[in-house]
Each structure stands twice: as C-alpha cells, then as structure tokens.
Amino acid sequence: MKNLKNYNFDFDTNGLSDFLNSNADLLLSKIVMDTTEAQYFQVLPDIKYGTLVPVFETGNIDDLAFPGTSCSFSGGNITLTEMELKVCQYNIQKNWCIDELNRTIMSIRLRPGSYLESIDGGVEEAFMNDIAKKANVYASRKFWGAETATDGCSGLIEQLTSASLSGDVVNISYSSMTPATSVEIADSYITNLPDALKPVTTIMSLNHSDFQALQLGLRNQNLYNFNPITLANGQMAINIPFTNVIAISTEIPAGYMALTNPDNFYLGTDLMSDITSPISWYSLDFQESRMKLAMKLGSSVAFASQVVLAS
Fold it and tell me: Average pLDDT, stretch 86-99?
C-alpha cells in the first residue's frame, strides 16, 4: 500500500499565487541547482541564449619540463579555444480549479457561511517542493538527452556522438549491470580512462538501474562506502572503494555511461529567467489558478578526449 503524506488542506488558494510568486527565485533555483548534475559538474549561470566558454590545454607535462639550463626554451604554446554552450527554454505549467476544491475538500473544512481561510497548512510549500522535484528529473534528462531537432539545443549524448566529437571520445561498448557483474563492468570502464585522468577524481554517470546494481554488487562484496549525506532527496553517489571514481545515479539515457573529470562537463542555465515576472495568477475566464515557469538549461563538454563513453 502506498504511503500517503498527511497535509492540512485548510488554506487559501488565492494566497497560493502570492506564495509562489514571492518564492519564484527559490523554486527556479531548486529545479536547476538541486539536480545531481549541478552538484558534480561545472555550472555556468546567466546564459540567456548561448555563450562561448574559453578553454585551454597546456599540454603533457613531458612536453613542458625537461632537463637543462634556463637558456633554452621549447615548451610550446598553450592551446586556447572556445566551446559553445547554448541553452534551451522549457516551460513548466500547472493549474488548479478553486471550484473543484470548494466542492470537495474545502466544503468539509470551512465553517458554513465562511470564505476560504488561510490557516497556514503548509500546502503551498508542499506544492512547490513537489513540482521542483519532478522538474529536477526533467532538467537532468535534458542535460543528457536534449536533441537539436526537438529542443533547439544539444544535450551531452548528442554532442559526444556527433561526427565532430565522436572521434576524440574514448568509445567503448556498454554493458547493462547486474549485482553479479556490476563491479567487473565498472572496473572495465575505469581502466579505459586516459592516462591524464587516472590520478584525478572522475565522475561515472550511470542510469538508475545500473547504479542500483552497483550498489548491490558492492554490498555483496562487503565494499561499503556510502556517504548518507549524498543519499538525500534521491541524489545518490558512491565513491567506488580504492579508486578515485565517484559513481552517481543520473538521468543519462539507458544504454549509456559517461566517465570524465568534474571540470569537463558544463551545465548552463539562467536563474534570472522569471524572477521579475509573476509565475502564478488567477484566470477569470477559466476560473482557476495557474502557474507557469520557464527555465533555461543547456550542456556542453570542454574536451571530448577526456570522456569515456559507453554505448
């Protein structure tokens, strides 16, 4: 039987618009910044449509350092380039009918002859939190799976598999994990890391099924390494024991795995999109309260050669 939360529905639906409008910045921030991707990768704010992000490559240390005197110089030039980070706009919409509430829960909550009363039931915040959590999932899916043809900008999977980047990516075969095979498969992903990334922290992005299989596989091998803080609100991460790899549970499409350093993936957003305009109002023509929120979200990769992509 599904567990039901007990909320007090003695609240003023007209006040819900005021609550959501006054907390628009909080709602938008929760939608974007509470995603797993925002916790583990680079976030670039204030992008209205697109921007060019400067990236550089200093080269291999063996090309920079050498024995000899200070009179010689052969270090070479630092490679300076730019990557495009374009954001898409997505709308979140919801409506609720006050008349329907009056005929159902409100009819037995209010005193006869009274109007809608605000008794601080906390339902406004509950609505906002529920919408934000659902929007987190949507935002994460678009970080990975946005397609230019339908979304207007490209997610990481489309970018990494494009003709311009796929040749630089470390491409390997994807294997679906089970508790019995998960550790072995994770090891095979990790050993494909480029040499430059082997001594630094890297992030392994898994779909939810593979992540759960890895959890069970590590548990079955008594390799417990869980941080309870990262389990809050469904944002889950495991530092794979005796490695420099953090496995995270994401909305990456089924059949894919991406492994790279935290500084290599970028999440672009604009947290100022709708703060200055109302996001909730009462519609007289339909006699219902409505909420509409626009968020902007995009993603990009700095160096495709520093990504292990299983597909």
Answer: 76
Residue 201 CB contacts under 8 Å (≥ 6 apart), including other chains = 244, 245, 246, 261, 262
Question: d(Cα 214, Cα 229) in Å, to the nearest integer?
Answer: 18
Tell me, what's the pLDDT at 9? 42
Q: Which domain holds residue 103?
A: 13-62+77-310
Identify the three-state secondary structure at position 277. Answer: coil
Report the phi/psi class of residue 158: left, alpha or beta, with left for phi > 0 and alpha for psi in -120 to 50: alpha
Please tell me whether the overall predicted TM-score, pTM, comes out greater than 0.90 for this model: no
Return the closest-CA partner of residue 307 out of 268, 266, 250.
Answer: 266
In a domain? residue 72: no
Q: Is 296 inside any structural domain?
A: yes
Is 204 within the bounds of a domain? yes
Angle at 263 between CA 38 and CA 26, to 5 degrees: 20
Q: Is residue 178 part of a domain?
A: yes
pLDDT in tens, 184-233: 999 999 999 999 899 999 999 999 999 999 988 888 887 555 555 555 55
End-to-end CA distance of the chain: 38
Higher pLDDT pick, 278 / 36: 36
